[in-house]
Each structure stands twice: as C-alpha cells, then as structure tokens.
Amino acid sequence: MSSNAFFSDLLASISERGRTLLRGGGPPDTKQDASELIGLCEALLSGRGEASGVAIAREVLDRYRQLDDAGRLAFFEALAREYGPDRERLSQAIEAWRAQPSDEDASDLHFASEPRRQELIRRLNRAPGGTSELVALRADLLGLMNGHRDLAALDRDVVHLLSSWFNRGFLVLRRIDWQTPANILEQIIRYEAVHEIRDWDDLRRRIDPIDRRCYAFFHPALVDEPLIFVEVALTETIPGAIAPLLAEDRALVPTERARTAVFYSISNTQKGLGGISFGSFLIKQVVEELRRELPKLENFVTLSPVPGFAAWLKQASDVPVSDEERALLENLENPAWFEDAELASKLRAVLEPLAAHYFLKARTSKGRLIDSVARFHLGNGARLERIDWLGDLSPKGLRESAGIMVNYLYRLEDIEKNHEAYANDGAVVASGAVKKLLKGEGRRLLDMRLS
C-alpha cells in the first residue's frame, strides 16, 4: 500500500510540474471554453512523451470541470463530430481487406475503424484520478444527452472503455459493517435508493446486528467509493413485507435458525456507470459468501419493489379491467385506502391478478418487460416467486406500486436455465402461485361478462 501511495504521489508531482509549464508558470484560467479544450485534446493525442501526456491529460480534465453545461455540451458535440475514425486510413484498410482478405488485414480494419476519441479517453485515464473523473464525465454526458442523438456514438465509446476497466475481474467484494470507515458508511446512507436510511442509528440497525449483512463492490481506481451495494436480512421464512424487516423493535434472528437470506435493497452509487451491470455478479457472489458462512441457509430471495406498476395501471391502454373496476381503482388516490378493510379486500381481488398480468403478459412497445427491477432479476436468472399484498405501505410504496412487493427466488441450480429462457425467448419463469393469480384474472373477467 505504501509503494502504491509513493508512485501515486510521484505521478501527481510529475503531472503538476508539467501543468505549470503548460500555463507558463501562471495560475489556471478561471474561465474556459470548449475550443481551448479541444486544442489541448489534439495536443494530448499527438504527443508521445509519457510525462507530458500525463500533465496534458490532467489539464484537460481540470479545464473540463470549469466548463458550464453549455460548454460541456459543446465539448461533447466536438468529440462526437470531429473525433471519429480516420476516414482515409479506414478506406485504405477496407480496400486492402477486399483485395485479399487475411487475418492481418482484418486486424488492420479493426484498428482503423476505432474512433480517435477512444484513444483520447484512454490517454485521459492516465491522469492521476483520471478513472474517477471519466466516470463523472460520463454522468454529465448522460445528463446532457436528452434531445441530442449525435452524442449516442460518443456515449457508446465511453461505455465500451468503462466496461473494460470495470469488468468483473477488477471488482473486489467487501463486507460493510460498523467497523467500515465512516466516509464509506456515509456513502451507504447517501446512495441508498430503495428504502431511505434516516440516520446513523438506522444504518447501524441494517449492518451491525447478527442477522444483517451488507456487501459492496469496489474498484482499485475508486478505493473508497462503493460501486454498488446490497443489504441482506437473515430470516427464518420468506418475508412478504418490508416494515417488519426494518422495524426498530424487531426481534433478532439467531444465525443458527436462519434459513433465508433476503436481498431487500440493491443500490448503485455511480451514475456514470449506468448501463454497466454489476448487480448480477454481486448477488451471485454474495450468495456464495453466505453459503460458506451459513451452510444451513436454504432460500435466497429478494423483497423487491414494483416501481412501474401504479403508472401502468393509470396510463396503459391494455390494462384488463372493467369500467366498474376502473372506478374502484380510483380509491388508490386516497393515501389511507388500505385502512378500510372492506375496500382493501375488494382492491386485492382486482390488483393481485393485475400484478400477475403486469409481469407475465404486459410489455412495452418494444416487447420488453415494463418493470426495470423485474428485468434485472429475471435477466439474472431468478424466478418470480410470490406477489406480496401490502408489502410496502410507505408513501413511496403506495404511490409507485399500490403497496405491492414481490419475491424473486435465486436457486443456483436453475439460474442459468432461467436466464437463457428470459434472454432468448423473453420467458418469465414464475411459480405456480403467481400463474394461478393470472388464471384467477381470467375467471374474474368471465364472471364480469356473465353478470
């Protein structure tokens, strides 16, 4: 660790001296524009010296951070427009391939087709702290892409390189507990995206007791920044509601009695790594860790939200309900509807079959599952195990899913088979209980027509 710190400090020192020379010994400019930055990028691509390249890369990243949104957009548009493949070189490689195809010509064609911006991004990554700054740059790019189709190619190139630098082989799994450094624990609180962590006491209840676990993936270039983390509850049975798991006065479950590991929250921390999947690797590795530590565990399940369900009920044209049922669903606008037992019973008879339909039948215009959480877990090879009525009575749960939660079951011997069924055919592997709810929908609609 000390040798790493020495070389890191040495590199930073070389970079700073080089930047001072670039500025002629003066202070950095406080106002930047995209054209000046492009000039530095050209210098970075044309240079061959390692030390000067590091200094220029650091200068590019520093000046980029000083740009406002308009300047950053102009910078991104210049990279998309002016830093594609060398067309003359690419044309020559194409002609050589056509004249006499060979492995060598194919290799030349491959490298000739690479956009210049990919090499630029690689050189920027050499700067001290470059990887972290490129992740932040990609987050900026995502925020500015709306309505700018010309930036899609640039985003693909950035994602291509980040996917290589953040592949599974570089990721390190670490358990998060009460002895974890405070700066990392603060990030767990800040980035929890599913069930808000209210304060330090709330965090401690989630990571310190004997029946709680938290794991995160880290990357060597972002040592103290978790990329994604999962919170786990050890229980005796598969839970159907989140409140008992998070209750302050809950009874602890001795580890020798635990038979179920519940993944009840998975959160990403780096917006700039959106679309680069770590979650499937995280869950599978955590399952292996838990099996080694607690061999009596039998079930590995999630307790997951259904964030798209309420929006689908309100907006989709293919929701299979009668006018009478549509009127009944209007009661969901009352935040206390679940407190009326008779009303809740009527709504359950309508909503549970609709939830089954939502997962098993409803699709987007592109034929995809509507729910992002469902796509994640089913794509990872889980089975849709159970629909949980009134699983989440928080304001967010009621607003997004009418209080419904679901369990996805991870059975290691079936993961690959389930994944292939979903990836190849779009098939949702579901339990008999969920399929029975869908059949119940058919009976309900038949009764409605006959009445």
Task: Give the helix/strand layout.
Layout: H1 2-22, H2 34-46, H3 50-65, H4 69-82, H5 87-99, H6 103-112, H7 116-124, H8 130-144, H9 152-165, E1 172-175, H10 182-191, H11 200-207, E2 212-218, E3 228-235, H12 243-246, E4 260-268, H13 279-293, E5 299-302, E6 304-305, H14 309-315, H15 323-329, H16 341-360, H17 372-379, E7 383-388, H18 395-401, E8 405-409, H19 412-425, H20 432-450
Keywords for this entry:
451 residues; alpha+beta; Aminopeptidase; 3 domains; three-stranded antiparallel β-sheet
Task: Explain the overall architecture.
- The protein is an alpha+beta fold and 451 residues long.
- 54% of the residues lie in helices and 10% in strands.
- The protein has helices spanning 2-22, 34-46, 50-65, 69-82, 87-99, 103-112, 116-124, 130-144, 152-165, 182-191, 200-207, 243-246, 279-293, 309-315, 323-329, 341-360, 372-379, 395-401, 412-425, 432-450, and strands at residues 172-175, 212-218, 228-235, 260-268, 299-302, 304-305, 383-388, 405-409.
- Strands 1-2-3-4-5 form a five-stranded mixed β-sheet, with helices on both faces. Strands 6-8-7 form a three-stranded antiparallel β-sheet.
- Helix 13 (279-293) links the parallel strand 4 and strand 5 (299-302).
- The model is unreliable at 1-8 and 24-31 (pLDDT under 50).
